[in-house]
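Batch manifest, entry 17 of 40.
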Amino acid sequence: MAEAELARFIDRFTMEYVRTYPHPIERVWRAIIEPEEFGVWFIKGRLDARVGGRYWFGDDGFQGSVLAIDPPRILRLGDDRSNQFFEYQLSEAAGGTRMRFVHHIPPAGPYEEVFSHPDYPDDAGGDLPGGLDTPWRPGFVGGFHAMFDELAEFLDGVPCGSRLPATRLSRIAQAWTLRHGDEFSDEQKARIVLGLRGRERWNELNDIYRAHIKATIPPAEPTKAG
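Output type: structure tokens
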């Protein structure tokens, strides 16, 4: 699988991803706004796709309202808990659709590093390599990267995560399912291998983005004395 371009930091509080998908703009738009579609590659939820309409993502109640919408080109969503927003910008491109995704989180630091999570003890993406004043944790930034990879797979009609190249871990997991062939169905075996490979990829992206954030995020403005 070819590596997609990494996120770019417009400033210390705004990041963007740019992807081009070989599908018509209307198809990409539908994958972004239809709950039965974005629930596959993004997060399960609901979206009332009109200005002032509400959205809900995930079990933790992440929600807000639609700030702007111009089908099939612009969708901007605001968060109830702060003045942050994220926006999809779609445009026709040679052979398909260019997607620009922008996420802005207003300055509110210092932020806290999260070194462990009870549900994901193997997740090492909770640090803040850009500094405590900027919110971009490797696990968060890499998570969006992985989801836009999965959007590509979803649009192409293949299972999300199925294009990740095999690694030593996935081969070990595959061999394990073969040794326990009578205990699991073929579907269960495939899900086990895919799930483990997905967690491994998550932490690969943690390492990639830890270095990337540290190297590319714009420096903090110097504090004025007096």
